[in-house]
Amino acid sequence: MHRIYGIEAPRNESFGRNAKIRRYVYALASGGGRAALAIVRVSGARCRDVVEALCGHVPVPRRASLIGLRAPGSGDLLDRALVLWFPGPASFTGEDCAEFQLHGSRAVVAGVFKALSEIGCRAAEAGEFSRRAFRNGKMDLTEIEGLGDLIAAETEAQRKQALRQLSGVLGTQTEAWRRGLLEASAMIESQIDFADEDDVAELPLAEVQALLRPLRDAIAELLERDGRRGERLRDGFTVVIAGPPNAGKSTLMNALAERDVAIVSPYAGRRGTPWKFISISKVCRLSLSIRRDPRER
Fold first, then answer.
1. Distances (CA, A) of 232 to 131, 150, 164
2. DSSP alpha helices (H): ranges in 79-155?
3. Which of 30, 204, 221, 280, CA to CA, is 20 to 30 A from 89?
């Protein structure tokens, strides 16, 4: 057994991590923990067999259908779920895909995971759905990076940048550069491979330079224009507020955050030592005048 967002997911160790043997993979596409809904995705060649095993039939493609999911073998009802069926290649991964929109309890999700494992599916590795999309030509690496940034975005600026990259703007630009480099490489290789052939004209060096110079300038311009802003926007800054005890570091941090994120105390060095307080009702009182920890509010 291993865990996906804290939910036990069966694993057949005889298959190990070999995706070629177990063709179908599943993963929890929504967040873990208790919720109103949980979305489980399944992808793989002839994924329709998995859908039919759980649902009894394959629903109309790209139309949500309310279907009772039943455990293989016993026929026990697992949940009544909205099921969406996406035949490949018109799907996220380019393979046959299905989505099961379940009630979000851990018991329901764990039951569906167990049923999928019994059918012959395995839990997807981290990023495996995106990897399959890349392998099947549905996304390029820049779009996958943009998707990861969008999922991890915490600010409005991060969201906008991730959406721009996910839209394929950077991928289109780099693909144009790649074609230019391949053309220059082919010209140079032809001179090396067929140098002794009389019917192959000698390639002027200026012609290759004329092809590569605009590529060099375009890449340099992009890097200069960006100035690593995209990297800083994605990763953020690490700022250290340093100073002697009671210099106002915590007060400054609270002012910058516009909320209480640090304990403020008039006692020098008090916050540098770990303290454990055990409350015994009506036996003792703590009279140390440290302002209340905002995390306890």
1. 26, 15, 16
2. 106-119, 128-135, 141-152
3. 30
Segment 199-252, tens digit of pLDDT: 656 667 778 888 888 888 888 887 777 666 777 777 777 778 888 877 888 888
Q: Do you know the residue count of the chain?
A: 297
State the CB neighbour count (10 A cutoff) for residue 146.
Answer: 23
Among residues 31, 47, 30, the alpha carbon closest in space to that of 39 is found at 30
Could you check whether the bond before residue 245 is cis, i.e. omega within 30 degrees of 0?
no
Q: What is the pLDDT of residues 119-160, one digit of tens each?
A: 889 999 988 999 999 999 998 888 888 898 888 888 888 888
Whole-structure pTM value:
0.64
Asked if 100 contacts 112 with a C-beta cutoff of 8 angstroms, the reply is: yes
Of 67, 70, 107, 108, the residue nearest 84 (C-alpha): 67
pLDDT value at residue 274:
47
CA–CA separation, 64 vs 101, rounded Å? 9
Instruction: Collect all residues with Cβ–Cβ distance below 8 Å to 92 and sequence separation of at least 6.
Output: 43, 86, 129, 133, 138
DSSP letters spanning 16-39: TT-TTTS--EEEE-S-SSSEEEEE
Q: Which of 25, 18, 72, 65 is nearest to 45 (CA)?
A: 25
Query: How far are the Cα atoms of 176, 228, 230 from residue 146, in angstroms, in the given order?
Result: 19, 16, 11
